[in-house]
Amino acid sequence: VQLQAFGGGLVQAGGSLRLSCTVSGTIFRFWEMGWYRQAPGKQRELVARITSDGSTNYADSLKGRFTISRDSAKNTVYLQMNSLKPEDTAVYYCNANRLSTNFWGQGTQVTVSS
């Protein structure tokens, strides 16, 4: 199973980015997908998750600004990030989870300048 994340970059505060994570080597629709992030000196934290049937949950602090979605035809999970803040700066990782088996993507850097 391979996960490949795209879409990070440098953006000004208030801007938007969309991250993508493409999954290969497995049947995508069976997996719960998630986005996590890790800022320098901090632990990795959950950003958002989406189940195989499309149910979502978010970190409380990010509700309303971030949206997770998935496209089974493209084997891809997305994270739309709006109204970005400098504190959103981190490496963002996608995750595939099923029956306690986890796979991780390589991470994509998001930097928000003030």
Question: What are its keywords?
Answer:
11 strands; mainly beta; 114 residues; four-stranded antiparallel β-sheet
The helical percent reads: under 10%
Shape: globular
Please tally the β strands and state the result: 11
Class inferred from helices and paired strands: mainly beta
Number of helices: 0
Which spans of ≥5 residues are poorly predicted at pLDDT below 50?
Answer: none
**Element-by-element helix/strand order:** EEEEEEEEEEE
User: Averaged pLDDT, please?
Assistant: 96
Please state the CA-atom Rg, rounded to the nearest Å: 13 Å
Taking the sheet with the most strands, its summary is:
7 strands, mixed
N→C terminal distance: 37 Å
Proportion in β-strands? over 45%
